[in-house]
Amino acid sequence: MKLIAVFLTISGLAFGQAKSTQVQIGTKITGHFTNQKILITATVVKIKEAKGNPVEEGTPAEYEVRFSDTSIKAIKAGCCDITLINEGDLNLDGKDEISLYQAPVNGCTYTMTTYVLEQGNWKTMVKPFLIPTGCEGISVKELQNLVFSKNRNIYYLSKDMSSEKAEWKQNKVSSHQKH
After folding, report:
1. Residues sharing a CB contact under 8 Å with residue 74, sequence separation 6 or more, in sequence order
2. 33 is in which domain, residue-wise?
3. Is residue 141, in this structure, part of any structural domain at all?
4. pLDDT, tens digit, 9 for 90 and up, residues 21-73
């Protein structure tokens, strides 16, 4: 997590993705979340400190994603550490989408959720999916390529846990999954 928590700009793309030039990963990123003319900063903010170990009936820390344009509502993210990913314009609406890669309260299986800003509200574009890490880090390139668009469709990668090698497999986001 610490490896990818550093502000990074990614230029290499895979899987035929159509992404904006603002593709970034970190706890603070920029993007064109309202339109292509305005560059906005998104920042992970801890809004509640942890009190004890959540596994032992403690209270986990809570986070949200806030934006430099204060007219944009924060994304309430809950627990735990978050890495933001500017996904570029996945749905070709002229605005960048944002993904949250979140650590678990306990364990090694992370979650990823992708959001789109519609009519002033953040809506789920790609419902949360699990990313088992085996307690090993995930590379920045793998993280950047988990959600992408190809041929006007949106996809996400997940680990095929039925395979001994647990290789990445491509999943198409169905229209009912969006929002």
Report:
1. 45, 64, 65, 66, 67
2. 8-48+58-172
3. yes
4. 445 899 999 999 998 899 999 999 999 988 877 667 888 889 999 999 999 99
